[in-house]
Input
Amino acid sequence: MTSEGGGVEDRDEILGRLSHSGRKTRPPDAATPLPVLSVDALWDLFARRLESLGGRIGTLDDLPIVLSRPHVIDIETAARLGRVPGGDPIWEAEVGVTTADLAIAETGTIVLSTGLGKPRLASLTPSLHVAIVPRSRIVATMAEAMSRLTDRTTVFVTGPSRTADIEGVIVRGVHGPGDVLVIPV
Output
């Protein structure tokens, strides 16, 4: 039963060729694990992945310039930096400064959890999100990060916010900050 546009016989022939092509028809059962890496190597991998997504790695030397703009800073980060928490009203802040719970090397992702004095809007509403990440809080894989999660609400941030909802054109900063700066400390 064949028609000009093809039919059952054509479909059967194509499926038959695919099944005998020697190609796997499903993905492997497990992802290839990352080799055991040092903390420095994990940070190098994290930086490459973050930068490939449009994020940046910075240092504490970047903070004076960043904090000269209207900003909001959470309690944990303020204590870590010897500053006063709070700052400008959240909707007027150009910079939000938080401390990340984890950094994931394989994806360039930071993990932020809610909690007392940790306003997650600080990572979402300003145009620049600065995430302070203790160097010891890096993990190799998403699976390792997931195993460390608590029952708190958690946000995974992989680079600046972006969408391609309108005509497939990528626009940054629509659903969150258009710029992400991660500072390992």
Observations:
- The helical segments are 8-19, 39-52, 63-66, 75-81, 142-147.
- Residues 49 and 108 are 5 Å apart (CA to CA).
